[in-house]
């Protein structure tokens, strides 16, 4: 699997699946979650309600339609809330591993990731990048391209240097 980084908005990525940093309730929220629900329209929330009546566990992943976005699917993951004391790194790496497993079930070949837990949930940025890169590199998958979407230049520079990209 090729791994690349771009700076931009994940809702605008022309890939098979975009990953959402959701929360356990799976009913929308702030940050990238809010942006994905706004861009995808009401079909995303409707599918969340139908497919996840009890929400989703921390570290797990599940899919819905991407509604009006260019992507076909949203793969929702629930990262650990570092600020609330959830500091088990295995829960963070599990999000990336489970997202790729769901992508394989769907037959998605291209997928875009935000930096899970690195926003409101407060996971330290350097380690959030390391956890993402090492898990994407270490997980066997049929996915051909993982695009890490950095929201802002400092995050882009950090991911690019970790990937060994200029
Ligand atoms: P969490 O609650 O898992 O920390 P956030 O949405 O607060 O989720 O932040 C996760 C990451 O997504 C952060 O790096 C944040 O800057 C980034 N982000 C926020 N909006 C977007 C967007 N539209 N596209 C890509 N990344 C985004």
TrEMBL record:
Q: Which SMART domains match?
A: A1pp
Superkingdom of origin organism? Bacteria
Q: Which residue spans adopt a coiled-coil conformation according to this UniProt entry?
A: none
Per its UniProt record, what InterPro entries does this chain match?
Answer: Macro_dom, Macro_dom-like
Q: Which SUPFAM superfamilies match?
A: Macro domain-like (SSF52949)
Residue span(s) of domain Macro: 1-166
Annotated protein name in UniProt: O-acetyl-ADP-ribose deacetylase
Classification of source organism? Bacteria, Bacillati, Actinomycetota, Actinomycetes, Propionibacteriales
